[in-house]
Specification:
With about 500 residues, this protein is α+β, with helices and mostly antiparallel strands. Strand 14 and strand 15 (about 405-410) form a beta hairpin. The radius of gyration is 27 Å and the shape is globular. Helix 3 crosses helix 6, helix 5 (about 120-125) packs across helix 7 (about 160-190) and helix 13 (about 415-425) packs across helix 14. The chain has helices at about 5-10, 20-30, 35-40, 85-100, 120-125, 140-150, 160-190, 220, 250-255, 315-325, 340-350, 370, 415-425, 450-460, 475-480; strands at about 60, 65, 75, 105-110, 195-200, 205, 210-215, 270-275, 285-290, 300-305, 310-315, 325-330, 380-385, 395-400, 405-410, 435, 465-470, 485-490. Helices cover about 30% and strands about 20% of the residues. The chain has a seven-stranded mixed sheet with strand order 10-11-8-17-14-15-16. It has a four-stranded mixed sheet with strand order 1-2-3-4. The longest helix is centred in the middle third of the chain and has 29 residues, at about 160-190.
Length: about 500
């Protein structure tokens, strides 16, 4: 890859692969005097939220839970929905611990806001499933996971971690904490002991007096309490929602057309951009001749991005047509590389002709190497080429840069890091950038990268209207972050 591609990828995805537990302990300030300082200054992670994210009548019980007086429960999901059903699964885990009635539950995408950074993903990765945190240090460590997540994770969706880490460490805890707050509110209202109450199906019940009331009736008072960071969780034997097949919460809107993907965005006054990117990584525009298109009334701008050329027009079809009429000369970049040459290089390395070869120990295999010298040994070779992600929804991003602010509509696997990349590209403060994260028509890791949205804001910066940049399928296949090409040789008998 070229330096340009590498620079873009530095801001994407997760950096957890480079973090060891020793690094974590050092950066968390656990060693030395940091512990006492953390205990004093650390805020309650579950109490963090953004009031501007509330709709009329909604009350916040904790970061991931909103409740209304009429008993509607909204679960805030810090993962992108790209067909995998993470939202429904996470809502089930939270509703289970909250003892909520499933029919009252809906889900909402967390905003690209620091208050909704996925710190529970960091906790799960660093400490595993069974780590026990001392009660006296819980608040400090919990906030430390949040601080680390700001630089390492953001709101990453990937690696099959939503259920196993976010759900296990975050959603269950948020649900249990909300249940405790509602029980406390009911006990205060009815002037009875908390342990005389139980929660079931979004209702608080006092068996001794026969009284019952919905969660919503206690929402206002419950919202004034501080969430418990370490509430008691259910025994799996008590589960009624987890492990039970539930209809996907995102499917009805996808069936009736209400669901909005990035490609569906339509901002008033919006124009469309088509793009032609360098034919090889590292290549740059040497010259371009746009005389054939700049006078066309439907063409608004031709933008030279150094490693790509974009045309902005009234429609995507018009932009694509105009782009084909521009003469572009490229220079530099990786040359002399093709699939046959890569395969030959791999084969030479397998034959031992490599600067560095990793030798795996064979000691544990006993006589296996000698056994493979038998005439009935079977030898096979497997090879796969570089492969594109080939997302079903074309790569796209809509950007509007005006009056010292930028709005971006895009389906992305890490909207918080996307916001960071956009702010850096435009030289803005993060507070000046709003990322509206949409549904993703397939991601597979491809939509954790920043290249298409950086291009979109650079193009939109040169106009005073919203611009939707769409990659053609050809551009997508030729400019992916590819799965590696691999050749493997194996012997057995």
């Amino acid at each position: 890859m070229s330096d340009n591609k590498t620079d873009v990828s530095k801001t994407s995805g997760s950096k957890l692969a480079t973090v060891t537990r020793r690094t974590f302990l050092a950066s968390a300030g656990v060693i030395g005097g940091g512990l006492a300082l953390g205990l004093t200054l650390s805020p309650n992670r579950l109490a963090m939220n953004s009031p501007g994210f509330l709709q009329a009548g909604e009350l916040v019980l904790n970061t991931w839970v909103k409740l209304t007086p009429d008993n509607r429960l909204t679960v805030i999901i810090p993962h992108s929905e790209m067909g995998q059903g993470a939202g429904t699964g996470l809502a089930q885990m939270l509703a289970e611990e909250m003892d909520a009635a499933w029919e009252t539950v809906s889900i909402e995408q967390a905003p690209a806001d620091d208050n909704y950074i996925n710190s529970d993903l960091t906790r799960g990765y660093l400490l595993g499933d069974n780590a026990q945190i001392p009660a006296f240090a819980y608040r400090m460590l919990d906030f430390t996971f949040y601080q680390l997540a700001k630089g390492l994770i953001g709101q990453l969706t990937g690696g099959s971690t939503a259920i196993s880490l976010t759900g296990q460490h975050g959603m269950r805890r948020a649900g249990a904490a909300a249940r405790e707050m509602l029980l406390k509110a009911a006990a205060t209202t009815w002037e009875v002991p908390v342990d005389s109450l139980r929660a079931e199906n979004s209702t608080i019940v006092h068996a001794a007096s026969g009284r019952s009331a919905s969660f919503g009736e206690f929402a206002s008072l419950a919202a004034t309490y501080t969430p418990n960071l370490k509430p008691a969780l259910k025994d799996p034997a008590e589960y009624k929602i987890i492990g039970v097949a539930k209809p996907r919460l995102d499917v009805p809107a996808k069936v009736d057309g209400r669901a909005q993907f990035g490609i569906d965005v339509n901002v008033p006054g919006m124009k469309y951009a088509a793009i032609e990117q360098a034919p090889v990584f590292g290549s740059q525009v040497k010259s371009l001749n746009d005389a054939a298109v700049v006078e066309l009334p439907w063409v608004h701008k031709v933008v030279n991005l150094s490693d790509a050329v974009a045309v902005v027009a009234d429609s995507y079809w018009e932009a694509s047509r105009a782009l084909k009429s521009i003469e572009i000369e490229w220079q530099g970049g990786i040359t002399g590389l093709d699939s046959d040459g890569l395969r030959q290089t791999h084969n030479r390395h397998l034959d031992g002709d490599a600067d560095e070869v990793r030798q795996e120990t064979m000691e544990a295999l006993g006589d296996a190497p000698a056994m493979l010298d038998s005439p009935d040994t079977v030898s096979v070779e497997y090879a796969t080429p570089y492969l594109a992600h080939a997302t079903m929804e074309p790569m796209n991003c809509t950007a509007w840069v005006r009056d010292g602010q930028c709005d971006v509509w895009v389906g992305h696997q890490n909207p918080v890091f996307a916001r960071n990349a956009i702010a850096e590209t435009l030289g803005m403060e993060r507070e000046q950038v709003v990322v509206h994260n949409m549904l993703l028509g397939g991601g597979f890791g491809r939509r954790s990268e920043m290249d298409n949205l950086v291009q979109a804001v650079k193009v939109a910066e040169q106009l005073d209207v919203p611009v939707k940049l769409i990659w053609s399928r050809e551009q997508d296949m030729a400019n992916d972050f590819y799965r590696p090409a691999v050749v493997s040789r194996m012997r057995g008998r």
